[in-house]
Amino acid sequence: MEYPLEIRDVQPETNEAMMKLFIGERGGFVRVGPKGYVLTQGFRDMAAEIYNLEVRPSDVYVVTYARSGTTWTQELVWLVANNLDYETAKSVLLTDRFPFIESTMMFHPKLEAELEEIFKNDEVKLKQLGAFSQSIVRKVAAAPSPRFIKTHLPLSLLSPKVLDAKVVYVARDPRDAAVSFYYLCRSLRTMGFDGDFKTFWHYFINDLNYWTPFFEHLKEAWEKRQHPNLLFLFYEDLKKDLGHEVRRVCKFLGKQYTDDQIAVLCDHLDIKNFKNNASVNNDILKELGMMYPKEEFIRKGKSGGWRDYFDEEMTAQADKWMEENLRDTDLRFPHLQ
């Protein structure tokens, strides 16, 4: 399969510095396409398959920059599309209902070998580990319709026909997204970030972190927001009035529910219930040694928490960075207007 975008290695000295911080990444980093999106070397093996994946009109994609309310939105979208089937939602893992299409790039063979050694006498865990190393793209390609697909890739790295399907895009204040992503990168053995938040933030705003540049990612989707098959949501709007945003998702997916049904769905999605939902909180990652045991996949789910992590210098830096990146677009975060 052909792949029209350039994939080039990150500069050797930069790659070396990144790998000293992201100690879980064993293969190093690449930049993809004209905007230079940062991904792992493992992406080389799947880039063409993702780009050339047949898009079906019945597909539903949830596309976000990492830690922008992705899991929350996946559960919302899946339930709305599947007639509020809570029984299946609670009994089948979200990762199986809504596969993360590029996730295999995070699971380097060296890490897989280390974990296989740890669990060499446990056939069940070895089988579960094997599922993480198998191509999710091929699994999705072979899956029956309707398919639900999660990705943190920007639209330009997906099929050019992706908007033949339904796409729900969620954007979040980058300061909150960065804090949440910092904790995720620390908690997952596949990334294993070994540094403080200030260092993480420096790499984040200098486009030296997974799936960056952040604003290019958002702007690609924002430019398509008038397309009838793309629904652009803000995480802060979901937090402010979940019922209203749920109704927007229902309309987008051609579904109608009563006020009582929507109230039950909002309660199901409430953070206090969501954190304790075994189907979505990825405890299997802890069981397989891919996530450190004391960490949480679903954290606080709040807006504005970044203020607890930013000093004056970082706050000023963030203001300047956001202003510069929003200068050439009418994209605005509603909570900042």
Q: Helix and strand string, N-terminal first?
A: EHEEHEHHHHHHEEHHHEHHHHHH
Report strand %.
Answer: 5-15%
How many strands, which pairing sense, and closed or not: the largest β-sheet? 4 strands, parallel
The overall average pLDDT, rounded, is 92
Question: Number of DSSP helices?
Answer: 17
Shape: globular
Based on DSSP secondary structure assignment, what is the total number of beta strands? 7
N-to-C CA distance: 45 Å
Radius of gyration: 19 Å
- Class by SSE composition: alpha/beta
What does this structure look like?
The structure is a single chain. This protein has 337 residues and is of the alpha/beta class. It has helices spanning 12-21, 47-51, 70-81, 86-91, 94-97, 109-118, 123-133, 136-142, 174-187, 197-205, 214-222, 235-240, 242-252, 259-269, 271-274, 283-287, 312-326, and strands spanning 7-9, 29-32, 37-40, 60-64, 148-151, 166-171, 230-234. The strands form 2 sheets. The protein has a 4-stranded parallel sheet, sandwiched between helices. Strands 1-2-3 form a 3-stranded antiparallel sheet. Strand 2 (29-32) and strand 3 form a beta hairpin. The protein is globular, with a radius of gyration of 19 Å.
Write the layout of secondary structure elements.
Blueprint: E1 7-9, H1 12-21, E2 29-32, E3 37-40, H2 47-51, E4 60-64, H3 70-81, H4 86-91, H5 94-97, H6 109-118, H7 123-133, H8 136-142, E5 148-151, E6 166-171, H9 174-187, H10 197-205, H11 214-222, E7 230-234, H12 235-240, H13 242-252, H14 259-269, H15 271-274, H16 283-287, H17 312-326
Parallel strand pairs: 4-5, 4-6, 6-7
Antiparallel strand pairs: 1-2, 2-3
Helix pairs in contact: 6-7
